[in-house]
Amino acid sequence: MGRLFLVNLEGKMYSCKHCSTHLALPEDIISRSFHCKHGKAYLFNKVVNVTVGAKEDRMMMTGLHTVVDIFCVGCGSILGWKYEAAHEKNQKYKEGKFILERFKVAGPNGNYYWTSTDAHVAGSDPDDA
Ligand SMILES: [Zn+2]
């Protein structure tokens, strides 16, 4: 029995760092400037292969939001959250959008392999995801 992906993404993508379930594409990133208590977080237009938890209201730096936590369908680990509703007018653009906490997902360069013409790779920046 192989693992069943609900949705297969192609090309560069973000995936669950525990079970490699495909989650989102870099072109669906709306903003990389979000922060969560563990560090960087990205706002995505679309995330696949996640289940959502119960709705709750959370007070954030930008005001009150109704959010649901999102979990990987493959392994059940928490990945971030989805904005169900924003109560401040200028935050409405986040409604229906997803946050992935950066340290919980493997980036598009996570399985990068160097073209082996040059052994000096130390100057490159694999974290530019
Ligand atoms: Zn997973």
Summarize the structure.
With 129 residues, the chain is mainly β.
Give a structural overview.
It comes from Dioscorea cayennensis subsp. rotundata. Belongs to the yippee family. GO terms for molecular function: metal ion binding. This is Protein yippee-like. Keywords: Metal-binding, Zinc. The protein is mainly β and 129 residues long. It has a domain at 31-106: Beta Complex (Metal Binding Protein, Guanine Nucleotide Exchange Factor, Chain A). The protein is 0% helix and 41% strand. It is built from no helices and ten strands. Strands 3, 4, 5, 6, 7, 8 and 9 form a seven-stranded antiparallel sheet that branches. Strand 7 (63-72) and strand 8 (78-86) form a beta hairpin. The chain is globular, with a radius of gyration of 16 Å. The site of zinc ion has 8 residues, from loops.
The CATH C-level class name of one domain = Mainly Beta
Overall spatial form: globular
Bound small molecules, by name, code or SMILES, are:
zinc ion
Number of helices: 0
* Helicity level: under 10%
**N- to C-terminal separation?**
32 Å
Poorly predicted runs are: 111-129
Order of helices and strands: EEEEEEEEEE
Number of strands: 10
Compute the average pLDDT. Answer: 84
Rg from alpha-carbon coordinates: 16 Å
Structural class: mainly beta
Estimate what percentage of residues fall within beta strands: 35-45%
CATH homology superfamily name of one domain? Peptide methionine sulfoxide reductase
- CATH fold annotation of one domain: Metal Binding Protein, Guanine Nucleotide Exchange Factor, Chain A
CATH architecture descriptor name of one domain = Beta Complex
Main β sheet profile: 7 strands, antiparallel
Pfam families: Yippee-Mis18
Family: Belongs to the yippee family.
InterPro entries: Yippee, Yippee/Mis18/Cereblon, Yippee_fam
Organism: Dioscorea cayennensis subsp. rotundata
